[in-house]
Here is the input.
Amino acid sequence: MSIIVMMLVVVPALCASGKDADIRSTIERLNLEYTRVYNAGQLDKILDFFADDAMTLSPDQEPVRGREALRRYYEAAFKREPHPDLVVTSIRSEQSGDRRVRSICSNV
Here is the structure.
């Protein structure tokens, strides 16, 4: 199954520096860490990646908004796929002020 997710990654210091290599390196590190905690089923650590007002978009689903909705979303995902093998690939990263909008493709 493929899921497209858009996430906001707030890295103000990196965005202010404007160093693309630093930003790409940070995003790759976050991808790897997210993959590790997701595959380990560590729900609270997954939620640490999201702001309180975060939103996740997946194909053929309504947007998931806020940490409690995200908690329910991931709990359901873990019930559907109790032994996930997630792989995350960044597709695009764009800056908007002090935030980065990151489009990723993840395959479970």
